[in-house]
Known about the structure:
Elements lengths: L1 H15 L16 E8 L3 E2 L14 E2 L2 E8 L4 E9 L7 E3 L1 E6 L12 E2 L8 E3 L4 E3 L3 E5 L4 E8 L3 E2 L2 E3 L6 E5 L16 E3 L2 E2 L1 E9 L3 E7 L1 H4 L11 H9 L4 E7 L14 H10 L4 E7 L2 H5 L14 H17 L3 E5 L19 H16 L5 E3 L1 H5 L22 H10 L2 H4 L14 E2 L2
Parallel strand pairs: 19-20, 19-21, 21-22, 22-23
Antiparallel strand pairs: 1-18, 2-14, 3-13, 4-12, 4-15, 5-10, 5-11, 5-18, 6-9, 7-8, 7-12, 14-17, 15-16, 23-24
Helix pairs in contact: 3-9, 4-6
Amino acid sequence: MKNFSKTAGNMMLACALTIGTGIPIAAPAAASTAWVATWSASPQPVWGPDFLFPVNTPAVLQDRTVRQVARISLGGSRLRLVLSNAYGRQPVTLGKATIALSAQDSAIVANSLRTVTFGGRQTATLLPGASLLSDPIALPVADSGRVTVSFWLPDATPVSTFHWDGRQTSWIVPGDNTGSSTLTAERGAPESTTARLLLSGIQVETPAPARAVAVIGDSITDGAAATLDKDRRWPDFLARRLAPHGVAVINAGISGARLLSDGMGVNALARLDRDVLAQPGVRSVIVMLGINDIAWPGTAFAPTGQRPSLEMLKAGYRQLIAQAHNRGVRVIGATLTPFSGALPNTPLDNYYSPDKDALRRQVNDWIRHGGAFDAVIDFDTLLRDPVHPELMTARYVSADRLHPGDEGNRAMADVVDLNALLPMLITPTKTLAPGAQQP
């Protein structure tokens, strides 16, 4: 009887480990490592020529190599790349891809070049609307290390998906230059852009459990006024604080992003799953959205747009929180920063008005005291002028009076209480960092 029970148990196990074709598969081994998202650039659809801003990329790429530099947050010994054709209407043929440690400008560190494969092959196809995950790449990279990723596109490839404001110079050069140590003008002068093309994510293998904090936001999170090529967005500074604790940070900011409406990207709820909840290792998300919902209507961005009510914005936040909580992700709300006098001497100089600012203050009051978020980071209190609270203080504001400069970005990262992001991440203290609160 004991032998029969053992045989029956083995048969049941074999049935449980059989896929639909009847082919037995091995039981998964206990994982000793995990993959975590360590860098991201949220995909956006390329807009038409009638939009206020130029796209800053060619309309079509053919027999071109695109080389991009990315500074990851958390390092490791193996990486994976994520490519996106989210808004493409036709397949994208990838002729070859490489990754290396970055040197100066477009140059790479000697002997660090690795060929990237997809299912064991050097060539791959990105299907319309889909993403593509590479095989693991053995390339040790330190925390806050920079990598250079190059793609060769042999066929005519319409540029339909991009990340508009990468705050980092990328290069486009004729031919297959994926293996070049640097890009030269021998086969044509390299064309530069600050947009991200194809590359939407980098993952790193870490000892389990892997953890990441995502930041979903607009141009303030995207780093619109941060110094080009210096990685001085506020999530960059936050990443440097969190890396020693084994936590990655991914930036899901999109310039022009809105909570409730599409703009220079789809609305927050339409991209929440892709850009935040589906990212491996994400345990918390910081939400800093709403200023464009308030300020865009009536400007050249949306001349006939209708400003949302406070109740509409609250409903949007609550839905975002509910969806994140449904996936076990902690949600931290960030107050909206002052913007009086924003974008002077531009077609958007009516971005600010007192009634818009009144709505911003109502939203901030609800974020602080509504009890909907798991914790709050009060960027408004941090950045506002103590005498004129509708203004961002001169120490932190950039020339456009809307976005913080480098020092403002640093201050924003420094004010974040790490235990509010991930409770018990570090030894608890009796007082929280200024501007943050725990429920």
